[in-house]
Write a structure and sequence with these properties.
By secondary structure, the chain is mainly β. It has one helix and seven strands. It has one helix at residues 42-45; strands at 27-29, 33-37, 60-63, 68-72, 78-80, 82-86, 92-97. The strands form three sheets. The chain has a three-stranded antiparallel beta sheet with strand order 2-4-3, with no helix packed on it. The chain has a two-stranded antiparallel ribbon with strand order 1-5. Strand 6 (82-86) and strand 7 (92-97) form a beta hairpin. It is globular, with a radius of gyration of 16 Å. The N and C termini lie far apart (40 Å).
Length: 111
């Protein structure tokens, strides 16, 4: 199923109009690991990251039949933007997190 236009993932109260040039809302990363967790499994998954040995090998894992997908966050701690893909009926089809690993053509324009 194809995704329609993917908007940036936002929390309640976040509005892209409040952002400056090249700013974004993102999810926070601590301990160099990132993850997506099914909301229904979040309580039972909250300490799973402690068992992942820093995700050195392999660099990603799928846990509990996909209730959690965890991966090494590339540059480590920080904030990373995420987008949610929806199909034409409004159902979530994917999540995309930009781990900011690759420079863009505009990186030379920074400060």
């Amino acid at each position: 199923m194809a995704s329609a236009a993917p908007p940036q993932a936002l929390r309640d109260g976040q509005n892209p109009i409040d952002l400056g040039h090249r700013q974004y809302f993102g999810f926070g990363v601590d301990a160099g690991m990132a993850c997506f967790v099914d909301a229904d499994a979040s309580e039972r998954m909250q300490d799973v990251w402690l068992t992942l040995d820093g995700l050195v090998d392999p660099r990603h894992r799928t846990i509990d039949s996909g209730a959690m997908v965890a991966w090494s966050s590339g540059w480590g701690d920080g904030s990373y933007p995420t987008w949610i893909g929806y199909d034409t009926a409004g159902h979530v089809t994917c999540f995309v997190a930009d781990m900011l690993l690759f420079p863009t053509d505009n990186d030379e324009d920074d400060d």
